[in-house]
Amino acid sequence: MAKVQLPVQKNQIIEVTFEDLTHDGNGVAKVDGYPLFIANGLPGERAKVKVTKLNKGYGFAKILEIYEKSRYRVIPECPIYEECGGCQLQHLSYEGQLIAKEKQVSDVMQRIGKIENVTIHPVLGMESPWRYRNKSQVPIGEREGGLIGGFYRQRTHDIIDMKECLIQVEENDHVLKKVKEICGKYGIKPYDEKSHKGVLRHVMARYGKISGETMIVLITKTAELPNRKKIIAELVATIPNLKSIVQNVNSKRTNVIFGNETKVLWGRETITDSIGEIQFAISARSFYQVNPEQTKVLYEKALEYAGLTGAETVIDAYCGIGTISLFLAQKAKKVYGVEIIPEAIDDARRNAQLNGVENVEFAVGEAEKIIPNWYKQGIEADVLVVDPPRKGCDQALLDTIMQMKPKKVVYVSCNPATLARDLRILEDGGYQTLEVQPVDMFPMTAHVECCSLLVRTDK
Ligand code: SAH
């Protein structure tokens, strides 16, 4: 077989112009149509780069010098941005981030979805794109006798001690600082992956932005936490509005953070928070959106697209702890939610009760199995909402939607590429995509969330 001749060689130094950003925030430059992915490059910039790795269809390079900078380039605010890897776009101004995310969505709609006549709205961003995350979860290590905690250096398990995280609420930074200090003072040893010894593995802090309530979760290797009483007393004395201290025991040799045993050390089992009118009780293991402010924006858009009058039957597929279901139930006749994780459905039912919502019903199982069953039993939706994980909707679910023919489908997605793929399938099955509204749930990172409205063309 003839070897394919690539337009560049490894270690070659060349000059390139960046054309685009990938979905994970790398710059893209092309040499005779051959794409090179290059960290830190921004669209429009010209740079001298060195080719580092070549594959058949694409390669990698690194920047040696930027000749012409983008007008959207800024100096990253965070001192550990380059090492940390938690954010990917701090070198791009927030205005530039929103433009890039809109382009990312409209590109995949054309390239993957081949969707025509769709309105793609500008990204709904945050007024202040910092300090938005309500949950912090970091591994614990040790340096010169003291405890450290923070993210791993990219592609390693070396912990970078984090004093503050600029996308995290300040309350959580404070919790992490105090846990390190207090546990260090009482001789708690960090868990060591190599020897499989030590006590404290991870610390999670969760803050209810509306309620102001704080939860601390200590994830330990051992069931016992030495000096437990003293540690609890000091945490309670120093953390304002602390409502819950929980210990989770994970004694396994694993990268998975949580173990199966969870016990309340002090206070309540849950903290509460609210999105709009709906209250949520959040336990240590519950999934809860990390940016509640933008979640409200996203769900309000979903509610607007659903266009409910009070007479509709709605299905919420991939419903998690029932967040969207409860939002929709305020305006629908009946909402059916389905989700694969049993604990999430426990939370969903509890949250329905907490809010006195009676017109929802939740089921545990795969959306692609439960919804066809419902359909056989005569449950048909006027509006069907999906909010699948990154891989998108299962084909069997899309098939059922096309049989059931709900008048409207509201597709909430955290991955524009699989969204575009699924919209194409639904368009071929009798739907038209009218609008796509991207929402910036994760400023400074490369992620973008979308809410889209599809209607049946034959109704
Ligand atoms: N709508 C929720 C959660 C969306 S995340 C919210 O906004 O909070 C996607 C959810 O889909 C996760 O909770 C995941 O557990 C669930 N899930 C994944 N595969 C599934 C499947 N095949 N059927 C049903 N739920 C699934």
UniProtKB/TrEMBL annotation:
S-adenosyl-L-methionine binds at residues 289, 318, 339, 387. SUPFAM superfamilies: Nucleic acid-binding proteins, S-adenosyl-L-methionine-dependent methyltransferases. Transmembrane segments: none annotated. Residues 7-65 form the TRAM domain. Keywords: Methyltransferase, S-adenosyl-L-methionine, Transferase. InterPro entries: MeTrfase_TrmA_AS, MeTrfase_TrmA_CS, NA-bd_OB-fold, SAM-dependent_MTases_sf, TRAM_dom, U5_MeTrfase_fam. The keyword Zinc-finger does not apply. Pfam families: TRAM (PF01938), tRNA_U5-meth_tr (PF05958). The active site is at residue 414. PANTHER family: RNA M5U METHYLTRANSFERASE, TRNA (URACIL(54)-C(5))-METHYLTRANSFERASE. Belongs to the class I-like SAM-binding methyltransferase superfamily. RNA M5U methyltransferase family. This is 23S rRNA (Uracil-5-)-methyltransferase RumA.
